[in-house]
Amino acid sequence: MPHGPTPPPTTPPGTAGAITEYPLTTANSDPYGVTSGPDGNIWFLEMITSKAGKITPGGTVTEYSLPSTGLQLTAITTGPDAKLWYTSINTNQVGSITSSGTTSPLLSLSPATNVQMITTGPDGDLWVGAEGYIAKITTGGTITRYSFKSKNGDTPDVKGVAAGPDGNVWFADDANYIGKITPAGAVTEYAIPTALSEPWGVAAGPDGNIWFTESTTSKIGKITMSGAITEYQLAIPKSITTDEPEGITAGPDGNLWFCEFNANRIGRISPSGTITEWSLPTPQAGAAFITLGSDGNLWFDEFYGDQIGKITP
Fold it and tell me: What pLDDT is attached to residue 14?
């Protein structure tokens, strides 16, 4: 059954940084992954319960069971066919669900491991990051795998993927690279200046660059289409060793917005590198993914808080 909205935000509506949190219907569901749906709602995954859910801009939550139990759901995106496509990291599968809740059979990407992020590419196909390769999936279910080695010879562990303004798909390689792959499968990688940064999320920025998060070094980076990288350091509270920035997305205000999973904050960075941060009302909420909603707000998951949140830009 739908679940009604929570009380008003702790700061006045319309104020930059005003945060509202909405509890989910199912307890201990561990929401992980959010995207703006074709129906004007925000769609999310529940990692532990094998469910997908949607939340209206007004805060009403509806949940849908997926075709299999025991899925460890990871990432979700709106596909070119107006379905919601998602990944399961423990079963290495990809599935889809319509905005009315009708599911399709799961597609297996085995024997690969760590099937994680998913995005719609500029070519109209779905692109998925995995360990050892990047996969392209048509809406009809045809899978093409592009295996490659990281620039240093290691096996890549591909985290974030995002469509770039140059017609390629850009990605984060855990081996300390930001890469791009053409629609035909040609890969180019660029080394991140800071070692052991473990890049996580990537997003196309309003400035024509690709922006990314460095989860272990508490930095936000940007890379030009020619591969020049600039990094911006976040302030790290004394109580932790890293802010663990993860998901990142372009906002309606010309800035990039990101989650700090460990520091329990939502951050904003301007194209010139000015950073502003807001603490979440719920302690240790564990915000990981963030997306721009149809209402002009930024929406994010709270993995430990079992909530979906929004912040006014």
Answer: 64
pTM: 0.94
Q: Under a CB-based contact definition with an 8 Å cutoff, are residues 30 and 70 in contact?
A: no
Contact in structure between 221 and 230 (CB atoms under 8 Å): yes
189-214 tens-digit pLDDT: 999 999 999 999 999 999 999 999 99
Amino acid identity, residue 172? A
The answer to whether residues 249 and 298 touch, using CB atoms and an 8 Å cutoff, is yes
pLDDT value of residue 15: 77
Q: Which two tokens stand for residue 248?
A: 């990142």
CA quadruple 199, 277, 243, 274: dihedral positive or negative?
positive
Instruction: Give the Cα separation of 137 and 128 in Å (integer).
Output: 8
**What DSSP character marks residue 112?**
-
pLDDT of residue 5: 42
User: How many other CB atoms are found less than 10 A from the CB of residue 152?
Assistant: 12
For Cα atoms 180, 183, 186, give the angle at the middle one, nearest 5 degrees: 55
Question: Which residue in 184, 192, 185, 194 sits closest to 227, CA to CA?
Answer: 192
Provide mean pLDDT across the span 94-110.
95
- How long a stretch of residues is the chain? 313
How far apart CA 260 and CA 128 sit, in angstroms, is 23
| Closest by Cα among 180, 185, 181, 133 to 157 | 133
- Per-residue tokens: 208: 């024509």
- Angstrom distances, CA of residue 230 to CA of 99, 227, 243, 257: 39, 10, 19, 17
